[in-house]
Amino acid sequence: MSTTAPRDREPAIRVQGMEKSYKSLQVLRGVDFDVAPGSIFALLGSNGAGKTTMVRILSTLLRPDAGTATVNGFDVLKEPLRVRESISLTGQFAAVDEVLSGRENLVLVARLRHLKNPGNVADDLLARFNLADAGSRKVSEYSGGMRRRLDIAMSLIGQPKVIFLDEPTTGLDPEARIEVWQVVQDLANQGTTVLLTTQYLDEAEQLADRIGILHEGRIIADGTLAELKQLLPPAEVQYVEKQPTLEDIFLALVGKDSRAGSSVASGVASREGRS
Known about the structure:
Distance between the termini: 81 Å
Strand order of the largest sheet: 6-7-8-3-9-10
Number of helices: 10
Helix content: 25-40%
Structural class: alpha/beta
Oligomer: single chain
Strand content: 15-25%
CATH superfamily of the largest domain: P-loop containing nucleotide triphosphate hydrolases
């Protein structure tokens, strides 16, 4: 009988005492957190908080000054090749070739990873990410949301167990952000562990099973949304009229909210008729 515990019983990501400085600038000052397999962990922080530095360390692109980290049970310093086999990384900007079509991008990556039937792999991912109709079009013709979906699709080739998404919705419009949110949720539902860095509070609130708040190089809070809410005084109950947000209005008008779309559109038309 083997005495080694299955890796899927360990945290998918474990970080302990992580430190990193750039000359005199100390970016990480002893970071600790765990991420459960098949969950979404949001690393929340303002610009310059050290989120990208943390991702680069976990993806073996940067050596820490101190501390340890394991990804899928493999040490990022001692077993970097095993870590790379287990992960995929999507940066802040879509790493796609605009000259190629969406399908050609996927086939290229599948071939680089020496997968059998790269065409079938590409077609399956195009269908999964609702890009089948655009598969033959050049990526230069894609919208921001389509590029990001293609970028994430490319990162899933080879079925990595852990995926790092470094601010994946930066620069996207509200409609494209929601498309990416759905993709991220689907990944977790299918068993992929997701570490998501973001500076958008609503993004972390919408997606994350757990949230770590990184501030001045340290995790100052780590828990579920419900647990984090308990850190504040109890909310006062007030009765107010809830007005739609600008995002609600935008999505209703472009047809993404069928319940509100007709009422908002009719309201706009009614006011125009009276003017």
